[in-house]
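Entry for the shared binder. Reason: the reviewer on the internal report wants the predicted structure included alongside the sequence.
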Amino acid sequence: MSIKSLNPYLMFDGTAEKAIKLYERALGAKCEGVMRYGDVPGDAPCPGEVKDRILHATVHVGPSVIMVSDGMPGTPVAKESNTEVCLHFDDVESMAKAFDALAAGGKVTSPLQDMFWGARFGTLTDAFGIRWMFNCDLQKA
């Protein structure tokens, strides 16, 4: 098998741009390659309410990539799933800052706490319905 990489593709219902801004602030993400529905070449009609929606964007979070898109109006975007995005951190302090920033406007489902597997861990759902896991291995004494 020659799989090059694996990354989540997050779908939004017209809020992708706001979500990207949150991820830039909270996680230090860098967005590139934003293509909007109105940028699609050819004769396909693009209604005014759709042209500014994000068709595709690449968001770098640390060494990883998340892809982001808005669905077309009238096409439902699932609000819940059995998928969570897990972030692994090198230090507890930066993880706590990112956790608090991403939790703003969302819901903490499990606060950051030391866990039996030797890590500090917590979960939240951000303001856009994306579920996140935060994990940082603790130094062994």
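Summary line for the report: The first strand starts at residue 9 and ends at 12.
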